[in-house]
Amino acid sequence: MLKRKIIILTLVALSLAGLYLFIHMNFQAMEYLLRTRLEKILAMVLCAVSIGVSTVVFQTLTHNRILTPSIMGLDSVYMFIQTIVVFLFGSGTFVIMQSDAYFFLTILLMVGFAFGLYQLLFRRGHNNLFLLLLVGLVLGTFFSSLSSFMQMIIDPNEFLLIQDKMFASFTNVNTDLLLLSTVIIAVLCVYIFRYRHYFDVMSIGRDHAVNLGVPYEKIVKRMFLVIAVLVAVSTALVGPITFLGLLTANLAREFLQTFRHTYLLAAASLLSIIALLGGQLIVERVFSFSTPISVIINFVGGVYFIYLLIKESKKI
Prior knowledge:
mainly alpha
């Protein structure tokens, strides 16, 4: 039954990919259109897999279905990095932002921020989850406020460069980074998949997992760092999509009704691909590029987040 559901999701994702690839095809410019559309599809798949996998694992480690790695302030750190670079280098920023060195610097700074937060949790034990959340939210608000302040005092033309980075976009993806991102995300996903059976046991709680022989603390430390790298790569590649992981990870759990991460990881990735391909089709064919895809996904995800809050509050 689970395999059948995964096959259904795979067929839906492939159908949307085929529709996106060939819809309104101009056969006189077929070679160019196929290449650009395949690059967009690859960027969407990379972003979807990294966000879907990282969110499922993050929720398993924290035992909380309303959390995503983005809530820890990674998106605010990303926007702060973009803003401060534009603030310091002005109109020459566009060239800098297209370089591989800038891509790596953004990833390193975001991972460094996450690692510092996680160290705060690990140093004081697993019971400090709420402290981790609080510090992450406070620092995220702090970086967001600094970004807003600098955005108000810079040149309006330079602000347009920042505005392009505020919303995820698959229209102007730096194709030079796709191969590098593919290698990083593929290696990390294979590494995570090796621990899928441990996640099944860890989902029943820390004490039970430790009693059953799972090296709980060791796995949690490794996975938090891997999750931070996955989120940093996807965000640096296309921009922040806050609620995509929350939406697809929970839909995967509702759709499969299982604790087995072999299927949950696959389902969350496929649902993320479906959401991005479907959302991008709506953006291009219905809204004519007037609305970023992240606005649509964040709106749907935000409504679903409120639904989860109300649903969980009734259980108390």
